[in-house]
Amino acid sequence: MNAARITFVAVSVLALTTLARAEGELPIPADEFVYCTVCHGVQLMGNPTIEAPRLSGMESWYVENQLRAFRKGWRGKHEMDLIGMEMQPMAAALSDEQVKEVSAFVSTTRSDAPPSTIDGDADKGRTHYSTCAACHGVRGEGNIALGSPALTGLNDWYLVTQLRNFRDGTRGSHAGDTYGMQMRASTRLLPDDEAIQDVVTYISTLQEQ
Amino acid sequence: MKEKNLSRRHFLGLVGAAGGATAVYQTAMAMGLMQETGPVAMLALQSAGPAGKKVAVLGAGIAGLTVAYELERAGYEVTIIEASHRVGGRNLTLRHGDRVDEMGYDQVCNFDDDPEMYFNAGPARIPGHHHRVLHYCKELQIPLQIKANFSRPAYKHDPERFGGKPVLMSRYVADARGFLSELLYKAVDKNVFDEPLSAEDRERVLQFATGYGDLNSKGKYTGTRRGGYKSGGFAKPAEHHPIMDFGELLDSKFWAGGLTNSENPDWGEPLMEAVGGMDNIIKGFVKNIKRPILTNAQVQSIQNRADGIDIIYNHKGQRHKFSADWCFNSIPTHFMQGIPNNLSKEYKAGLASLRPGNFFKIGFQMKERFWEREGIYGGITSTNQKINQIWYPSHGIHGKKGVVLGAYAFWDQSKFFERMTPDERLRFAADCGEKIHPGYADYIEAGVSIPWGRMNHMMGCGTSWSPEARDRYYKMLQQPDGRHYMIGDQISYHTSWQEGAFASAEVALLDLDQRVRAASSTSRKG
Hints:
The structure holds 2 protein chains of 2 kinds.
Chain A: H1 2-25, H2 34-40, H3 60-72, H4 82-92, H5 96-108, H6 122-136, H7 156-168, H8 178-186, H9 193-208
Helix pairs in contact in A: 3-4, 3-5, 6-9, 7-8, 7-9
Chain B: H1 8-30, E1 54-58, H2 62-73, E2 77-81, E3 93-94, E4 99-102, E5 105-108, E6 119-120, E7 126-127, H3 131-139, E8 144-147, E9 155-157, E10 167-168, H4 169-189, H5 199-213, E11 229-231, E12 239-240, H6 246-251, E13 271-274, H7 280-288, E14 293-294, E15 297-305, E16 308-315, E17 318-324, E18 326-329, H8 345-352, E19 355-356, E20 359-366, H9 370-373, E21 379-383, E22 389-392, E23 402-410, H10 412-418, H11 422-434, H12 440-443, E24 444-451, E25 463-464, H13 467-478, E26 484-486, H14 498-525
Helix pairs in contact in B: 1-14, 2-7, 2-14, 4-5, 8-13
């Protein structure tokens, strides 16, 4: 009994110190980037109420690419992309150096994996995903060489929105946006909304494993 | 000994001695001595009890400052944690050199360095039935003045009607009433109703219609002096405006906006404003709150404990943990899904069911008070253009310059302006103003736009409650979750009004008072 108690205490102490260290390690945004967390939440955990996606731990090279896409108006200028339009001026206000700095900050943020909110058919989704895997990896881990971001850890509702945006040409229809155009072409493999739901449901299972 | 009947006042005094402010308030309500819209009782809160006196207030807007002010007076130690660089929340008066912290477009207000050149970018009007606002203005000695709102010499403007020319509001009101009264007169005169009116009632209604519309003795509307003077009326004979075309009046949707705004009790005359800027209310609170207020301090986590509540916040590049006994949270509800917390599942669902509202305003500094030359001294011109309204200042009459409200867009309309750059917004609003006051754009010396949906740490103004959310979650969100109280205009029936913020603070404080008294009596028994 005593041994059990000692173990329990030891585990608790360990748990507490881990927590304390984890707390201490969480990056604090520079003053000039606090506003990112106003929409995207503490540690960029995402905020579905205002449709700001989770960005925690996103690859800095991909964040850089997307901030540049916003700056150039490849994203957030299409009249149907109302949420993207809210983001666009934030990116436009950043200097080259700030783009690099803030992207590095984004990649260090940490938060719990987002909850799943989409209830599609993961089995059907797996079939669809086989094509996606060519660029985004079998485990959704992404591939920097192809400019393909990781898909794990993203909000499922955000993936649905973006797949629809690509499909409808709201995203990925600007001539300069090579990667976006590629992605837009790829969404033709998803015949309808149901297919989008299914593939996103499957992608969610990847982050659980 | 002769028994005396208790006077109501004496009785309430006894209740107060036994049960405190909450009990007096509730008993008075029950006795019908107070109405929800009646004068506000002083919150005589019990001093902090064994349940603890350390309080975290999240957000330094009206609700947060009210809580801090009242609790300090009751002996609590209050720490206010404010995310923005400034105190006041949406109570924002802009003057020379003030930072306009719009996300993506950080700007500085370029009005002249002159105390008369200010613009209330948030709340700008106080009606007489907003008793809590008025109570605190009185207590904090904030001077108020009358603010004109509905103005007969101002205009109603529809670019599609009457040749796109602005029409005097007085003519709109007079002709609209005249035509409607004539219709009523005819209907009653011919007795077209399913159940005929009695002769006596008919006579009364005819008299009413005649008086309301200024009809002639035959029940016809032939024009009225109520529309205003076209010329003369003093040394020379008066010439009044001719009647407008009723068909065109109908086409202009005269009933939408402008004409009936002051029928809304919140916009009913007379209204008031703080002399020198609405933010004097904020300054009044700050002056009377002892503990320093932390700005640029952003909350990272809210965790209820069994006997307290922990707040983690970032400040000056450091992470801080503040362990409080109580927390009063006025963070916009739409941010709560982005802040780790351990509030109950149902409480979180309630917060997540709300959506931000939105408002948009433009302030223009005009180099001359040209509107005064048109006989306009304060009040509002209403237009069907996207700017909706132009407000003329009620202060600084006959001064050289003045600050005009150049656009006021509500809710979804605000998005139209939000999607423009600040310069585009000002140019757009200047063009709209030009259609009402020729030369308008040339009078503009400086301008500033405030899209609340894009303001840092705000991202909205007012809160959208669906009927279902109101039904299911409102009462719950008025109640605490553990040691956590949600406050702000968002938790009221008057979102985007200061009175709503005061009311939510009052509800939370009275609830706390009840708990403190309960805890004190338990500990006494123990």
